[in-house]
Amino acid sequence: MKDNFGRDIFYLRISVTDLCNLRCIYCMPESGVEKRRHEDILSVEEIEEIVRAAAACGITKVRVTGGEPLVRGGIIGICEKISATPGINELCLTTNGTLLPKYADQLKKAGVKRLNISLDSLDPETYREITRTGTLEAALDGIDAALEKGFEAVKINAVLIGGVNDREVLDMLRLTLRYKVDVRFIELMPIGQCARWASERFVSASRVLEIEPLLRDAGLDGVAKLYRLPGGLGTVGLISPISSHFCPSCNRIRVASDGKLKPCLHSADEIELRGLRGAELEDTIRAAISGKPRKHYLDEGEMSASARNMNAIGG
Hints:
TIM Barrel, globular, twelve-stranded mixed beta sheet, 9 helices
């Protein structure tokens, strides 16, 4: 389905929980988030119904997110139901990776084709600093488990934070020489916990090209501009929502774990889906797609208008 600006919207990111077993500094408060009542988050049946309605509106790709989706009870069953939905031909999941040794095999059997794994540092102390509670060893074990199970694609997402992990760009790049993984560097966005951070924390993704001039253009993959090291088994992606925003080609909508549809990550607009059924649900999703904003304004120096932390949106 096309929106009012002619963009083909076929991608749904749906959050199944705002809880996480880590506390990343740019994503959620150090104390975590207030636990919602069970009835305040989407049930398995509601998730299934929303995905089915979205498919009727032209959605063909779904990404399950959180928080950390693998802490959600019944996550395997949720993935099975989404992958079995008529019209959905690609199911992906974003995770911090620490629970993949337990779940990778089940996720693959449930129909998950692609994994995005958040890994912001290869230095144990820096990883601990960023995640507040995590261990690098657990994250690396998760990546190993994903690669062992043979998913169609394993992508490693690293949020660039000036003065924290930007010195590790070369180390992250070299992962593509050793493993068939795609390493993607993402610009930090002024939203939620980091909305008022100092300007030096916000690093342009183009810094990666300055650090490693041997990278060669390898085309595009959705929102990522792709590059490859000579001899690389995987690619390097640069995602630049601020310095070179991709709003003109945005193809996605988001649903938060409480059932609010967000046509744009950085908009304050949210549409309630809970309580809607059948044609009314489909019509509401169609209207949200049609009314998707033309762009955000982070590139013009504004902060995100979203009232949520990233853990409550799903990225």
